[in-house]
Structures are given as structure tokens and as C-alpha cells.
Design goal:
By secondary structure, the chain is an alpha+beta fold. It contains nine helices and four strands, in the order αααααααβββαβα.
Length: 316
């Protein structure tokens, strides 16, 4: 390891080691608690517990209840890791060099701006992928035995949907790229870190809040007063009433059930009910959409950084 890569490693090794220590600590914790979980539910048929309509034995419900908060804690760590990467790894990556005045020296030592940036960002990106992928895998591994079980953690909870799968890795890369670009633009480390944290958390919140607007839910139509299909592990997006022409009307037009519902449906000529849901298979659809958004933004931030750095190099 020589040249720019060696220098990048010297400057980033503490961050790499901190990430590895975090992963190691979380791995030990998840392994011990998951082993307890497996022991608690061993011998039970967990398929009957799946979904909000599941019926679990008290022992299984207790095990799920005890483990769910801890899985959410690990999921919360996974949610915060991208912001931490952007703030403590991305923002100082170039911003600190500018603030200290060492960027000019680095770019006049026979190393091109492109090579210098590629070494620094490449090593940071490799560490980011390793840490975020490991945490995402731990969350999914711990959650899998009690996935979508009554009163537990479901696939659409942010602790799982945002913090596991490929979107968690893509989000961490986006955070790193955003922090790097912001550090270059702001040129002061502390303000860049604060701005990066706000941008990364704001983007994650926006994707979470508007996620269901990106794809249409499935309509489960129940004719007349026929009992509706059980929700199972699907993500409910609300109910509507159906008229003969196929138009859908809001739920507040009628009571939810009973004789009042029957009379109201007859009065308004409603011929059925519509339950809008996102089936559990949409987990991968949301993962793909989130990953695409994060990766496109990451590429945009990297391109912006490269252009600005090249312009600055020309002025050296």
C-alpha cells in the first residue's frame, strides 16, 4: 500500500477500526439474544403466528414481546449509522483538508486531484459498504425467526425496511457522498457535519414519509357485506367504499361495521368495500426504489465533488 492509498489509510484507519468495533459489538449482542430467541420458540409452529390475524401460544408471544424492543434498538442503530458516516467520515474527508490548508499541499505533490480523491473516497466507500452491509445483515438475521409475527416487528417497520437490505447500504453510500460534497462546499468541518446530518436524516425521513406514494397499493375488494380478507402481513393503506360504476369513496362516509354499515351502504348505493394494502412482497419493491434514489443521489454528489475539486486543482 503506497502513495495516495497509504495516506488515505493512515488518515482513515481510526474510523475503519471504530466501524469494525461497532459491528463486532452488535454481532455479539445479536448472536446471544438470537440464540435465546431460538431456544424460546423451539418446537412451536410459528406459521400460525404470522400476520396480525395470527394466533400464537403465550410462550411464543412472550418471546416475541421480549425480543422486539431489542431488535428495534439494533434497527435504530442501523438507521443512525448513515448519518454518522456522512457526518464523521464524509464531511471531514475533504472539508478538513481545506480548513487546515493541507489540500493545496496535497495537490502539488505530483498527485492529480482525480487520483487523490479516488484513493480517499474509495477507501471510505469500501469501509462504508462493509459496516452498513454487516449491520443490515445482522438486523435481518436477528429479525428473521419472528418476522411478521403478531405484535412483533413487521417488514414495513422502518427498523427493518430502512435499516436492512440493499437500501441500507445504498443509503450509507449516499450519506458518505453527501458529506464529502458538503464538506468541500462549506469548507469548515463542524458546520459541514451539522448540515450533513440534517440532509441525511431529512432525506431518510422524506423517503419514509412519501414511500407509499411511489407505488400503488393492491385493492382487495369485498362484495357487499361479505367478510373482508384478513390483513395478514400486508401493510394497510386504508379502506374505501365501492359504487356500481367502480368509483371509490372515503371510509368516513359510513360506520365500520354492523347494522349501521349495512344501512349506510344501502343508502349510498355502495356495493362493496375496498381494502388498499401493500403485500409483504412489496418489501423488495420498496428496497429497489429506495436503493435507486440513494445511488442516483450518491453518483450526483460524487460527480459534483469531482468537478469542484478539479476546478480547485486548476487554481492551485
Amino acid at each position: 500500500m503506497t502513495g495516495s492509498l497509504w495516506l488515505a489509510w493512515r488518515q482513515q484507519r481510526l474510523l475503519v477500526l471504530a466501524g469494525l468495533l461497532l459491528v463486532a459489538a452488535c454481532t455479539v449482542w445479536a448472536a446471544l439474544r438470537r440464540a435465546d430467541l431460538i431456544d424460546a420458540v423451539a418446537g412451536y409452529d410459528l406459521t400460525e403466528c404470522k400476520g396480525w390475524n395470527g394466533e400464537c401460544r403465550p410462550e411464543v408471544q412472550l418471546a416475541v414481546f421480549e425480543q422486539s424492543p431489542e431488535i428495534r434498538v439494533l434497527g435504530s442503530i442501523g438507521l443512525l449509522v448513515p448519518a454518522a458516516i456522512g457526518m464523521f467520515w464524509g464531511a471531514p474527508l475533504i472539508g478538513r483538508e481545506i480548513e487546515r490548508g493541507t489540500l493545496t499541499v496535497a495537490l502539488t505533490q505530483g498527485v492529480g486531484a482525480r487520483t487523490w480523491f479516488a484513493a480517499r473516497f474509495g477507501l471510505a466507500a469500501l469501509g462504508t459498504v462493509a459496516v452498513s452491509a454487516a449491520l443490515a445483515g445482522l438486523i435481518a438475521w436477528w429479525w428473521e425467526p419472528i418476522a411478521n409475527i403478531l405484535a412483533g416487528v413487521y417488514w414495513y417497520d422502518p427498523y427493518v425496511l430502512n435499516a436492512s437490505g440493499p437500501s441500507a447500504v445504498a443509503g450509507a453510500l449516499c450519506a458518505l457522498a453527501a458529506g464529502t460534497a458538503i464538506g468541500l462546499l462549506v469548507r469548515r468541518t463542524i458546520p459541514a457535519m451539522v448540515i450533513t446530518g440534517g440532509v441525511v436524516l431529512g432525506l431518510a425521513a422524506a423517503l419514509t414519509f412519501f414511500r407509499r406514494d411511489l407505488i400503488a397499493p393492491v385493492d382487495r375488494i369485498t362484495p357487499g357485506m361479505t367478510p373482508k380478507q384478513l390483513i395478514g402481513s400486508a401493510w394497510s393503506a386504508g379502506y374505501r367504499y365501492l359504487t356500481p360504476d367502480g368509483a371509490q369513496h372515503p371510509l368516513e362516509d359510513c360506520a365500520f361495521s354492523g347494522d349501521e354499515l349495512r344501512a349506510c351502504m344501502a343508502e349510498h348505493n355502495f356495493v362493496g368495500r375496498v381494502h388498499k394494502v401493500y403485500p409483504s412482497s412489496d418489501f423488495w419493491t420498496f428496497q429497489a426504489l429506495d436503493s435507486a434514489v440513494y445511488l442516483v443521489l450518491a453518483l450526483a454528489f460524487v460527480a459534483l465533488t469531482a468537478v469542484l475539486l478539479r476546478r480547485r486543482h486548476r487554481l492551485v
